[in-house]
Write a structure and sequence with these properties.
The protein has helices spanning 8-31, 38-70, 75-97, 113-144, 150-163, 169-179, 182-189, 194-198, 200-215. The relative contact order is 0.18. The chain is mostly helical. 76% of the residues lie in helices and 0% in strands. It has one domain. The chain is built from nine helices and no strands.
Length: 219
């Protein structure tokens, strides 16, 4: 007997969460290698800060009210998850505050040992906060998402796409390709604006190159 496929809301949420796990884990690994260029670390750091903030802000502002309207009994659990978002914000503030301007190296390659240490400590805090939070959130959210309609989810997803910050967006494509099957990723990207969809091959190529640098492949 074949299991029913997951609803699109669950598929997209699972993939989004996995991109956060992949990105935050990669930053910790990459900053631990002295050979990783400063600019590559700064790009990934900025991507993580912008996209994690956007993700949980859209949940708090748009998705939670949608779920509570359909299932009032979920409010207490969702309020607790929003409190965890606040704690994650503090960790993101610390990560964002690490100075990676490269004043000690205008060429953009190396960074001071103090900056590298501060970045790694802040990156570990964000990675661990994300992992702990998603462990709490997913059992609640995957069940709650079944209480809203596919049309409601599609409207929410389109609002999220339209408001996504333009910070290293190619990395999101790269992480999504690693997190899901080609069919899952295609279903998630179907509502991308046509101009963005037209450059997907270029975004994928750029992501592949940048992720290789961050992972130290071939170094």
């Amino acid at each position: 007997m074949q299991a029913e496929p997951d609803a699109q809301a669950i598929v997209e949420t699972r993939l989004a969460h996995e991109t956060h796990r992949l990105a935050t884990g990669l930053l910790v690994d990459a900053v631990g290698r002295p050979s990783t260029p400063r600019q590559a670390l700064a790009q990934l750091r900025d991507f993580i800060v912008a996209n994690l903030r956007h993700h949980h802000e859209t949940e708090d502002a748009w998705l939670w009210p949608l779920i509570v309207a359909a299932a009032p009994d979920t409010k207490g659990a969702l309020d607790e998850l929003s409190e965890e978002h606040d704690h994650l914000d503090s960790a993101l503030d610390r990560l964002a505050s690490v100075d990676l301007t490269g004043a000690e190296d205008p060429g953009g390659e190396s960074m001071s040992s103090d900056s590298r240490y501060a970045l790694r400590e802040a990156a570990v805090a964000v990675r661990d906060s994300v992992r702990d939070h998603l462990t709490h959130e997913e059992p609640v959210l995957f069940h709650a998402l079944q209480r809203i309609t596919p049309a409601q989810w599609e409207e929410f997803a389109q609002r999220v796409i339209a408001s996504t910050p333009p910070v290293a967006g190619h990395l999101m494509i790269g992480f999504l390709d690693e997190a899901g099957t080609p069919a899952e990723v295609e279903s998630m990207l179907v509502n991308m604006p046509p101009p963005a969809k037209s450059v997907l091959p270029a975004l994928r190529s750029q992501a592949t190159a940048d992720l290789r640098v961050l992972r130290g492949d071939g170094s």
